[in-house]
Design goal:
The protein is 29% helix and 21% strand. It contains ten helices and 16 strands.
Length: 349
């Protein structure tokens, strides 16, 4: 088909997305491999699948193929490495219980197997043989071949996406960029949000912010792994150990999880010790994404744990645990002020 020329009167939104990161692996051109874009073209279930990469895409697809019946090996220094150590430990246990082998190493080279498939050499001299190789090495923005440099659209300092300001404006007036092509955190929900904000900023007066400081993330393994805001480690690094506290409840102490026999996981909330404002949360649960969304709303709305304690949640929902945890934090704070309350009572307050 021939090229089509479109002329924009008010502005243009560049939303070209991102694609699989090109592999830098010795011998990769000698063996066939799949990415998250091509894996769904498989017509037969591979007997042995090797997944290189332990991020969200690698973990989600590894568990899916293992449950379909493949013998899956994941080669990665760590599983869900960006999450809290306790979250990583849960996924390690779950994968081990489902027969998914984790090789904590990096892929060094790959070569064809003697009877088809591949032989993967890992750091640490471990060798993995398989029938199907899946690369889950992350994603890179699509910015090449668009002619952006010819019109002055600059890339960000890391060179991995289009540079935009908080209103998603590029360096060229009238051209906006949104989603994965900007090098921002690569989530479908965030890209959709930015696309809507970019269009709104073009079409309507005044400007809304399209870059957010807090973005919920969820890896859709079973159980799900969700995170919003700061981890405890990050919060301590930013505010100091004395200013940060955390409360954690294992799912074995959440009634809904017990009734559903889904007790592998936890809910952890990080908060400011002084005023009980929520700084972040990590949730591993069958509905972790939903629970993290509630905590995201609380953070954005300035709802502190002291207020969450008085917001009635239905029992026995998973979310009821959030109210219980908030109440525990509040009662602990009240207990430290018992002497003051007794004094106020004696003088008539």
């Amino acid at each position: 088909a021939g090229l089509m020329t479109l002329r924009a009167r008010m502005g243009v939104v560049v939303a070209t997305g991102a694609g699989p990161r090109p592999p830098r692996l010795e011998g990769i051109d000698t063996v066939p491999y799949l990415t998250y874009e091509t894996v769904f073209s498989l017509e037969e279930l591979p007997a042995r699948m090797t997944v290189i990469g332990g991020g969200p895409i690698g973990c989600e697809l590894a568990q899916a193929f293992a449950r379909l019946g493949s013998k899956v090996t994941v080669v990665a220094k760590a599983l869900v490495a960006r999450e809290e150590p306790a979250a990583r430990a849960v996924i390690e246990r779950v994968f081990a219980s489902e027969g998914i082998e984790h090789v904590p190493a990096r892929a060094a080279s790959v070569a064809p197997g003697t009877s088809g498939g591949h032989v993967l050499q890992c750091t640490g001299e471990q060798v993995v043989e398989g029938d199907c190789l899946l690369l889950a090495l992350g994603r890179v923005p699509f910015v090449e071949g668009l002619g952006l440099d010819t019109i002055g659209v600059r890339l960000n300092p890391r060179g991995n996406g289009i540079a935009v300001d908080r209103q998603l404006r590029t360096s060229v007036r009238g051209i906006y960029a949104a989603g994965d092509c900007t090098g921002c955190p690569q989530f479908t929900h965030y890209a959709g949000f930015q696309g809507a904000i970019a269009a709104r900023n073009i079409l309507l007066p005044f400007h809304s912010q399209g870059q957010l400081s807090t973005i919920p993330a969820c890896t859709f393994t079973d159980p799900e792994v969700a995170r919003v805001g700061l981890t405890e480690e990050d919060a301590v690094a930013e505010f100091g150990a004395a200013a940060v506290k955390a409360i954690c409840r294992d799912l074995e102490h959440v009634d809904r999880a017990v009734t559903e026999a889904e007790t592998e996981g936890f809910i952890k909330i990080v908060y400011r010790a002084r005023d009980l404002s929520i700084l972040g949360a990590t949730v591993i649960a069958p509905v972790a994404g939903e629970l993290a969304s509630e905590l995201q709303v609380a953070m954005e709305g300035g709802v502190k744990l002291s207020k969450l304690a008085s917001i009635v949640h239905p029992y026995p929902s998973f979310a009821f645990a959030i109210q219980q945890m908030a109440s525990e934090v509040l009662y602990e704070k009240l207990a430290r002020s018992t002497d003051l309350y007794n004094l106020l009572g004696r003088i008539g307050f």
